Amino acid sequence: MDYGDKLFWLSVVIQRKYAQICAELDLTPSQATLLCAIRNEPRQMADLAAALGMTKNALSQLVDRTARRELVVRASSAQDRRVVMLSVTPTGKVLAEAVFAEVAKRLPEIASNLGADDQRDFERVATAIVDTSDLSPPTSNRPVTP
């Protein structure tokens, strides 16, 4: 396998672990990512779509499904009523925090077979990749995805 193959399979390992965590919390991975992206502050729907790499229509459908579960709520911006803001409900906040806690606890397990030095190198490289990515972070510079 070449480097691209290894990265592909690494993404599969990460996605599977994340999906398992989400399923245990009765969330789809998309719902969990949405909740985590807005867990600390409301976000504009347009900014959120860009940050999550989704079309506005796809985000709107995801928000509809998540709102039916009373995990998120839409509201007009106080500054501009044309701008739709999305925030978590108290229940959504609890779930978002649970996702983050489980990801922080269990995702590092993917590197558990590495030695201590390799684990530190993996953390350093993963951090560098995320920090230099083209993710659109919220204005407070909090991570967009777990």
Automatic annotation (TrEMBL):
<dbReference type="InterPro" id="IPR036390">
    <property type="entry name" value="WH_DNA-bd_sf"/>
</dbReference>
<feature type="domain" description="HTH marR-type">
    <location>
        <begin position="1"/>
        <end position="131"/>
    </location>
</feature>
<dbReference type="InterPro" id="IPR039422">
    <property type="entry name" value="MarR/SlyA-like"/>
</dbReference>
<protein>
    <submittedName>
        <fullName>MarR family transcriptional regulator</fullName>
    </submittedName>
</protein>
<dbReference type="InterPro" id="IPR000835">
    <property type="entry name" value="HTH_MarR-typ"/>
</dbReference>
<dbReference type="GO" id="GO:0003700">
    <property type="term" value="F:DNA-binding transcription factor activity"/>
</dbReference>
<dbReference type="GO" id="GO:0006950">
    <property type="term" value="P:response to stress"/>
</dbReference>
<dbReference type="Pfam" id="PF12802">
    <property type="entry name" value="MarR_2"/>
</dbReference>
<dbReference type="InterPro" id="IPR036388">
    <property type="entry name" value="WH-like_DNA-bd_sf"/>
</dbReference>
